[in-house]
Design brief:
- By secondary structure, this protein is of the alpha+beta class.
- It has one domain.
- Helix content is 23%, strand content 38%.
- The protein has 1 helix and 4 strands; from the N terminus they run αββββ.
- The strands form 2 sheets. Strands 1-2 form a two-stranded antiparallel sheet. Strands 3-4 form a two-stranded antiparallel ribbon.
- The chain is globular and about 40 Å long.
C-alpha cells in the first residue's frame, strides 16, 4: 500500500451510527457536501459522490455495506 492508500474500518455505537446516517441523509437532500472524521482523518464527501448498497453472504454470515464513492478532481 502506498502512502496515499488507506483501508480502515471503524465501528460505531448504534447512536453514533444513527447520527452519522441522519447527517448524511440531510446533506444528500440539500445537495451539500458531507463531512466526516474516520480514524483521525477528516473527509469531505462531495455532492457528486455515488451511493451504492452491497450485500455479501458467505458460510451463513451476512454483510451489508452502504458505500459512498467519488474520484478526486
Amino acid at each position: 500500500m502506498t502512502d496515499d492508500e488507506r483501508d480502515v474500518e471503524k465501528e460505531y455505537t448504534n447512536k453514533q451510527f444513527v447520527e452519522k446516517l441522519r447527517r448524511l441523509a440531510d446533506t444528500i437532500e440539500t445537495g451539500e457536501n458531507f463531512e466526516i472524521q474516520i480514524a483521525g482523518e477528516r473527509l469531505y464527501v462531495p455532492d457528486r459522490a455515488r451511493f451504492t448498497v452491497e450485500h455479501e453472504r458467505e458460510d451463513g454470515a451476512h454483510e451489508i455495506e452502504f458505500q459512498i464513492k467519488w474520484e478526486d478532481e
